[in-house]
Design a protein that fits this description.
Among the domains are: 237 residues, Alkaline Phosphatase, subunit A, CATH 3.40.720; 90 residues, Gyrase A, domain 2, CATH 3.30.1360.180. 34% of the residues lie in helices and 17% in strands. The protein has 14 helices and 18 strands. The strands form 5 sheets. An 8-stranded mixed β-sheet has the order 6-5-7-1-8-17-2-18, with helices on both faces. A hairpin with a 4-residue loop joins strand 3 and strand 4. Helix 2 runs antiparallel to helix 13 and helix 8 runs parallel beside helix 10. Keywords: Membrane, Signal, Transmembrane, Transmembrane helix. This is Ectonucleotide pyrophosphatase/phosphodiesterase 5. It comes from Takifugu rubripes. InterPro entries: Alkaline_phosphatase_core_sf (IPR017850), Phosphodiest/P_Trfase (IPR002591).
């Protein structure tokens, strides 16, 4: 090589080679990338819901395990869940990122005029996939992306949605102890590599069950809340015993809060409208009313100004910020009791001392949110988030693309230890143990680069230096811009 040519190469004339090498590098190093992906595996995530755990319960009694996670991870002071603030709608939102009008689970009790069928969480109808298939939950998505999932009693997880069950799941049975559910989840996360789950969901009925019976203001709730902290401690210890506590991203949240009720604050519909004119679809404090054919205006006129503690909406007039209009399962008339009030047909029905379902902007309806793990910052407090934002956050942590949703990763990216990058892998990389394809690919890549060097140097040497300088400016600059070198 001539001295002139050598000086040109040292001054940067070989930058096109750098660009070409950058383009070839993924091919040359693909074997190494695949080995790293197989060694590290997909990030692990466990989502836990303590039903009805209101955001301010953590400050009510000593909660050492909750505060351990807060100090070691992140906490959000106020989480705005979705309307209506009931169990099934909000649990499906957590794993889909969708408002109820979009994912279709609009209440715990529903009527679908298209199917001409009713749904109740207290009957076998909740296992019919037709009710669930307006959305795709995260456990289905991660399995389609090559990962594995496990579900312990999470609402909807024991239903075959889009033809898919979680890889591992427990059919709902309220009599199964929390400790048994935890032990099963730990087994699934600790299984051999090809069988271990990447994403798990765990559900527990309290403090919701106790909150309904006692009311959140009852002094007896202190022991219930302290018991939830003990259960969280059991989960943390089991993760540590299995050696995966530092590897699993743990999110602890809820579906809604709880408000105290009084037998002095009851609205009796029988005082205002005959039962012969309508069908009662869902329970207080938000009641779906299905008027008999031709009776909508009559029923509405009898209810709209009936009681100052009850809001009455025709479907089309439901406030837009509720995102609760555009689904056939939302009834033509919606009643909502004001905070602290109960709607009943008469006082012969079952009265609860605590309930939820009200306006999702009310602090009493808001759930708790804490998280820790390798994906999260430490000792960080965020003032506000929306529950729909959790889904894109979990998709990012699990390295799978999020389906269209009502949330935004940008709203919660400050919870993360590292700034999100724009692209994520959509499936596991798998390589057969005895495959020589990666090695062959690597050798071919090296051969291509060496061949290019020989041809390039030969051609450049035969040309004049001024011509080389002119071509370098035209050839290399766009390539450098594309590669951000």
């Amino acid at each position: 090589m001539s001295c002139t040519m050598l000086r040109w190469l040292l001054r940067g004339g070989c930058r096109p080679l750098v660009g070409l090498w950058a383009l070839l590098l993924p091919v040359v190093s693909s074997h190494g990338l695949q080995q790293d992906a197989l060694t590290e595996g997909r990030p692990k995530l466990l989502l836990v819901s303590f039903d009805g755990f209101r955001w301010d319960y953590v400050d009510r009694v000593p909660m050492p395990n909750f505060f351990s996670i807060m100090n070691d991870g992140v906490m959000v002071k106020q989480v705005e869940n979705i309307y209506i603030t009931k169990t099934f709608p909000n649990h499906y939102t957590l794993v889909t990122g969708l408002y109820a009008e979009t994912h279709g689970i609009v209440a715990n009790e529903m009527f679908d005029p298209v199917l001409n069928r009713s749904f109740s969480i207290e009957t076998e109808t909740m296992y019919d996939p037709q009710w669930w298939e307006e959305a795709v939950p995260l456990w289905v998505s991660i399995q389609k992306a090559g990962g594995r999932s496990g579900a312990a009693m999470w609402p909807g997880s024991d239903v075959k949605i889009r033809g898919v069950f979680p890889n591992q799941f427990l059919r709902y049975n309220a009599s199964v102890p929390f400790e048994t559910r935890v032990e099963r989840i730990i087994q699934w996360f600790s299984a051999p590599k090809e069988e271990a789950v990447d994403f798990g969901v765990l559900y527990w009925e309290d403090p919701d069950k106790s909150g309904h019976l006692l009311g959140p203001q009852s002094l007896l709730m202190d022991a219930v809340i302290a018991g939830i902290d003990e259960k969280l401690g059991f989960l943390m210890n089991e993760l540590k015993k299995a050696g995966i506590y530092e590897k699993v991203n743990l999110i602890v949240t809820s579906d809604h809060g709880m408000v105290q009720l009084s037998p002095d604050h009851i609205i009796e519909l029988d005082e205002y409208v005959s039962r012969d004119l309508y069908t009662w679809v869902d329970k207080s404090p938000v009641v779906g009313i299905l008027p008999k054919e031709g009776k909508l205006d009559e029923v509405y006129s009898k209810l709209v100004d009936a009681n100052p503690n009850m809001m009455v909406y025709k479907k089309e007039s439901i406030p837009a910020h509720f995102h609760y209009q555009h689904n056939s399962r939302i009834m033509p008339i919606l009643l909502e009791a004001k905070e602290g009030w109960t709607i009943m047909q008469n006082r012969s029905g079952t009265f609860l001392l605590g309930n939820h379902g009200n306006d999702n902007t009310l602090p009493s309806m808001h759930p708790v949110f804490i998280a820790r793990g390798p994906a999260f910052r430490q000792n960080y407090v965020k003032s506000f988030m929306r529950s729909v934002d959790l889904y894109p956050l979990m998709c990012h942590i699990l390295s799978i693309p999020a389906l269209p949703n009502n949330g935004s990763l940008s709203n919660v990216k400050d919870l993360l230890l590292r700034e999100p990058t724009p692209t994520v892998p959509s499936a596991r990389l798998r390589v057969k143990d005895n495959s020589y394809a990666p090695l062959v690919g690597s050798l071919m890549g090296v051969a291509m680069v060496l061949g290019f060097l020989v041809v390039f140097i030969k051609q450049v040497t035969l040309k004049q230096l001024p011509s080389l300088k002119h071509r370098r400016r035209e050839m290399s600059q766009p390539l450098l811009q594309d590669l951000h070198l």
